[in-house]
Amino acid sequence: MRTETSRFKDYIETKGLYFTPERQCIAEEVFSNHKHLDAEELLKILKTKGSKASRATVYRTLDLLVESGLVDKIDLGDGRAAYEHTAGHTHHDHLICIKCGSVEEFEEPLIEQLQDWACEKAGFKATGHNLNIYGYCRSCNATQ
Amino acid sequence: MRTETSRFKDYIETKGLYFTPERQCIAEEVFSNHKHLDAEELLKILKTKGSKASRATVYRTLDLLVESGLVDKIDLGDGRAAYEHTAGHTHHDHLICIKCGSVEEFEEPLIEQLQDWACEKAGFKATGHNLNIYGYCRSCNATQ
DNA sequence: CCCTTATTGAGAATATATCTCAATTTTAAT
DNA sequence: ATTAAAATTGAGATATATTCTCAATAAGGG
To answer: Fewer Cβ neighbours under 10 Å: the N or C end of chain B?
Structure first.
C-alpha cells in the first residue's frame, strides 16, 4: 500500500527535486495528524519530536504539499492558514468559530457544482477555492 | 433621497458615537468608489484628495462601516482584505485572478441557501462568510 | 570522489493590521 | 459662549504571519 508520504516523494522527484529528511519529516507529520494545523503549530510539534527543520523549510514544504494536491490550505480568516491532508476526504468547506477557534467541516456537493457553473459562465479557470463561514460554534453559541 | 453616507451617519449616532469629518470623508470615498478597495489603497486615495486621515482611522472606520452593514469586507486570500459598499448589490461571491489581481463578482442565491442549511445542521451561528474562487480570469487565461 | 544543483537555517525583511496614549475634537449641558 | 465629559485622532510602536536573502551544506549523477 502506498503511503501519502511516498506519493509526495514521487511528486518531489518527478519535479527533479530532492526528497530530503526535512521534507519527509514534515510530510509525515502532516499526513499523520488529523487536525487543521497551522504552520507555527506544526513547527512546534516538529521541534518536540526532535526535528530541526526551520520555519522557512516548514513553510516551503507546506507550499510543495499544497502544490502536490495532497494537502489543502485553508484560510483561517485572521491572517493565518491551516493545512489538512486530503487523503480519504472528499472536498469540504469549513465552519470557523471566531470565539474558540475550532474548525468544523461540512460537505455540500451541490455548492461545488454551482461554483463550477459560475466559473464556466465567467470564463474563469479556477485553481482553488475557499468557502469559510465564520461565527459561533454550537458550544460557544450556548455559553455566549 | 438618502445617501449611503447619511445612513452611516445615522448608524454612528445611534450608537452614541461622533460623526467626524474623517469618518465622513472615508465613508464618502468608499461609497463613491465602485471598485474593491483595500485599506492601503483607500488611504492613498484619501491622501491625494487632501484628507489627513491616518492609517489607524481608516482601519477603524472601515470596521465601523462593515459593522453597519453598509460595506462588505472581502478576504483577498493573500493577507489583505478589500471593501465594497453593498448599496444596490445583492450578496455575491468573488472570482479572484491570481495573475492580474482582478476581482469579479458572481451571484448564486442557491449557494447562500445551502450554506444556511449547513449552519443550521451544525448548530452554528454564522456572523459572516467568504467564498472566493482563485484562478485565472478570462483574459489572463487567454494569454497564459 | 567531484561537480552541479537544490536545499537549508538563521535572521532580516515585508506586509497587513492593531494597539498605545497624549493631544485634540465633539457634543451636550450649562 | 464656556465648559466638562467622552470620543476620536495621529504618529509611531507593536504584533503576527509569512517570505526573502545568502552563505553553508547536502544530494545525486557521472
So the answer is: N
